[in-house]
Amino acid sequence: MSHLMKECSFASELQYALNVPTSCNSAMNGWFDWLVVFFCSLDESRKKCLMVIYWVVWFTRNKVVHENIVPLVSESIAFLRTFLQECGSISNNESANLVLQSVSWQAPPENVYKFNFDTSFNSQNRSTTSGVIGKDITGEIMASCVVPHSNVLDALMVEALACLQAVHYVKELGFRRVIIEGDSLIVIKKLNEGMHDRSTIAPVIHDIRMKARDFDVISFVFVKRDANNVAHVLARDHRTQHDPCFWIEEAPGNAAYAANMDRLKLNSV
Description:
Residues 116-237 form the RNase H type-1 domain. The protein is α/β, with parallel strands linked by helices.
């Protein structure tokens, strides 16, 4: 519940699309007290929108866990628009202003390689898997890997470890000019703030920054989930993986197909 209310990037994107603010205030202990204060700070219209957003996120979570179906953010936004409009919670003009476009993976600059990371949770043994995939300016796959993690209970720590794995993997491969991209807004913000971090993921953030010194060019970029789809598919399809797996100039199964779709979209622009 704490992850859903305060850290979930999927929920944050839906809030952004419906012009519902997000709150990063984590000073309170416990998600319930935090939610009461945050909820009471909203006007009546945004309170209604927030309740429906949480309902959609929970519905989506059940789809992922029980049916292995991962809807696109754009599909959830379209449903929210229709549902809220039918309920009279938003007007036609407000509905037209909602963010509906699907954001695709964007190519890096010339001589720079982009590595996307994401995680997937295995509810059966409560383990997680990091997925990392790198592509060049044309969208061709340079490398990919999946790495399992066990006994990691904090959702934010999982995302931070995935980012650390991406940086470590890229360094081992010898790439010197890279963009590290993911849909974990909090992790990316902490890496770009440059100030001393006191959160639970502070040690991991420190390790990432230390490894980043070994690159000629490195940047950490937040993207929406639709633009991070290949890494998501890679992690999701291997969430029962027990051992790390690495591929050079290729990716397995559905991840390769998703990467090819990104490349086709890139070439059609």
